[in-house]
Amino acid sequence: MLPIRRRPLAASMVAVALLAAACGSDTTDAQGTADTAAPVSTAPSRGDRPSGSGPGRPASTTTAAPATSVATTAPDVGDGVEGTDVATGAPAFAFVLHADPAVDAELRSRFARLADFMASLTERNAGRPAAEQHHVTIMFSGNWGVLLDRDPDASRLVGEWIAAGHEMAFHSHTHNHQFLDGYTNATDLGPDDVERCMAGDTSAECTLDIAYTRVRDAVSTAAGRDYDIRWAGIGPTGNGGPDPISDNDNRCAPDLGPDGEPLADDDHCIRREYIGEVAAGVEFIASDHPGVTVDDTDDPHALLGTSLCMPWAPDGSDVYYLPYSPYETESGRLRVTLDVIDEAVAVGSPGEMIGIVVHPHSYADSSSRTYAGSRRDRIEELFDHLDATLDTDRPVVSRTLSEIHDADTTEARTLCG
User: Fold this and answer.
1) Which residues of 20-37 are buried (b: 16+ CB within 10 A; e: fewer)?
2) What residues contact residue 64 under an 8 Å CB cut-off, 6+ apart?
3) What CATH number does residue 370 fall under?
């Protein structure tokens, strides 16, 4: 395993979470047009709750001794179904979808793609014992909360997904992301492309707190009860450093080197966003692997991530963190292939987890700038490969981030989780 700079904790966990925003998605990728899309109003709405203060957690400065396993029985977390535990000698696996920022027809098209994927997954799970049913985590950026408010059919589908054991979470692109999402709590750094914000017309109406509460309240309506948004994918981590890859790198007062050059290894942008209502509601963070570079993407051991304590809370204390990598269908620089995932599944062990991330708009029978072939078919192939393990002594089933967290018996749970 690669050395981790940030307080590595307990056992490693391979979390292959299909979250793509870690490295950004290009809205100019070949996406096609959905056959059916429900109308979505873009009129602003009001009534969002005021900001609160973030929770304080004791800071951790101790590297925990490696644990030998992650519990194979995931307790019911109140936002899914029971009976999802899998007795296995294999690593845990998390599949995450980043519902990236979009507006109007493109937003409706992306929801249609998400609905197509979830319909396929529902069909795959049909008739199986609960322990063999795949669960995923869907991270909604702010405008998806507006869509759910306006579209009863979309809201109904999300309610069905929650009832089936899938998890809803929050997603945001920070000021240094290549593609801004229209919402920010770091208002002193300037507006975050308000043109992409569907919650209002001014910066005051487009804070990240408002984006979070729109998603939380819309998901609660869909679920028919108060729903805790426990997880967020906020990123990217770090800054561009001396070799920025986009125009927005180094926007959040990065740490400077001896010659005044910006460093790439701080998370000021994330810390500026993880305040107020976001910090009060979001308990845990998932994002890209700290310390992993493009030179490691062919190494299956690099995918065997580690649960960490990251000092992102408003008071500087730690937040529980799981890493993931973008799948080969995505545009991130750290994307990994199905072959490498297969190898990681083969060499991983209990106490480890694999995380991969994708975007809903990648579930399309088309190629992109970075993947030549049907992205839909490649995503389905990943689940086919997982299903092929079910008749072995090392079955691997996708679990939500909360299911993996709640089954984590390492000291990460004690120190910051």
Assistant:
1) bbbbbbeeebebeebeeb
2) 9, 10, 410, 411, 412, 415
3) 3.20.20
Structure tokens at 109: 């098209």
Which 3 state secondary structure label does DSSP give 327?
Answer: strand
Q: How many CB atoms lie within 10 A of CB 339?
A: 12
User: CB within 8 A of 246, min separation 6: which ones?
Assistant: 24, 176, 177, 178, 240
Phi-psi category of 260—alpha, beta or left, where left has phi over 0 and alpha has psi -120 to 50? left
Residue pLDDT, tens place only, 83-132? 334 446 899 999 999 999 999 999 999 999 999 999 999 999 999 999 99
Q: Would residue 392 count as lying in a domain?
A: yes
Report how far residue 388's alpha carbon sits from residue 131's, in angstroms, rounded to the nearest whole number.
15
**DSSP code for 126:** T
Amino acid letter for position 345: V
pLDDT category at 250 given cuts 50, 70, 90 is: confident
At residue 196, the 3 state secondary structure works out as helix
The answer to whether the peptide bond before residue 66 is cis (omega within 30 degrees of 0) is: no
Contact 324, 23 (CB under 8 A): no
Token pair for 183: 């919402």
Residue 51 belongs to some domain of the structure: no
Average of per-residue pLDDT across 307-320: 86
**Domain range for residue 202?**
8-25+64-237+283-415
Task: Provide, rounded to the nearest whole percent, the portion of the chain with pLDDT above 90.
Answer: 49
Give the HSE-up count for residue 223: Cα atoms under 13 Å, Cβ half-sphere. 22
- The encoded tokens of residue 86 equal 């899998």
- Look at the chain and report how many structural domains it folds into: 1
